[in-house]
Specification:
The complex is a heterodimer of chains A (112) and B (117). Chain A is mainly beta and 112 residues long. In chain A, 0% of the residues lie in helices and 63% in strands. The chains are: A mainly beta (112), B mainly beta (117).
Chain lengths: 112, 117
């Protein structure tokens, strides 16, 4: 069974204090690994897709990396507006159709 | 570009009642998904449509949940009868195809928050 585990469950940072979120996965036939951001009362918003080990992608203060077993979301000098839940999901293809299996997420709170 | 539209935003019902949720995907998106997100959990796939056909409903509790996508556009998800454990946010998502191609992704609506009392 495909599994996605995110850690920590919650993280509190001071503004400017860099850190990393972890997503470890066990899946047969990984097609891609997705990171989403979810604000309270809203649906997940796409951030990145990573397709192969060693790949990195950046967007503003966020950088996502991928290895064969896990992905990291690095947050450099975070601001209060980065506060949100960050969801990791693995894309698998079954019978020609893609689905996303999500982890439970990491709730990030950045204090001014 | 208009996003995925869902209604209602909130719904409060008593157990054993029925409820329906509506979703209008992004125009031109062939694939539509319904996810259930329980508080503190990640979204869990309930059902996936390709156009108006079901391609995966393995995690849909079929004794109480049903979904349809008429004419390959709008979709409705129904629960009848509702149980306390159905309290969750029901998210609709869509993608252009089935996002097998690089750089395709799922776009989510804001969800319907259901409380079953």
């Amino acid at each position: 069974e495909d599994q996605v585990t995110q850690s920590p469950e919650a993280l509190r940072l001071q503004e400017g204090e860099s850190s990393s979120l972890n997503c470890s996965y066990t899946v047969s036939g990984l097609r891609g690994l997705f990171w989403y951001r979810q604000d309270p009362g809203k649906g997940p918003e796409f951030l990145f897709t990573l397709y192969s080990a060693g790949e990195e992608k950046e967007k503003e203060r966020l950088k996502a990396t991928l290895t064969k077993k896990e992905s990291f979301l690095h947050i450099t000098a975070p601001k209060p507006e980065d506060s949100a839940t960050y969801l990791c999901a693995v894309q698998v293809v079954v019978k020609g159709y893609s689905t996303l299996t999500f982890g439970k997420g990491t709730m990030l709170l950045v204090s001014p | 570009e208009a996003g995925v539209a869902q209604s209602p935003r909130y719904k409060i019902i008593e157990k054993r009642q029925s409820v329906a949720f509506w979703c209008n995907p992004i125009s031109g998106h062939a694939t539509l998904y319904w996810y259930q997100q329980i508080l503190g959990q990640g979204p869990k796939l309930l059902i996936q449509f390709q156009n108006n056909g079901v391609v995966d409903d393995s995690q849909l509790p079929k004794d109480r949940f049903s979904a349809e996508r008429l004419k390959g556009v709008d979709s409705t998800l129904k629960i009848q009868p509702a149980k306390l454990e159905d309290s969750a946010v029901y998210l609709c998502a869509s993608s252009y195809r089935n996002f097998n191609q690089p750089n395709e992704k799922l776009f989510f609506g804001s969800g319907t928050q259901l409380s079953v009392l």
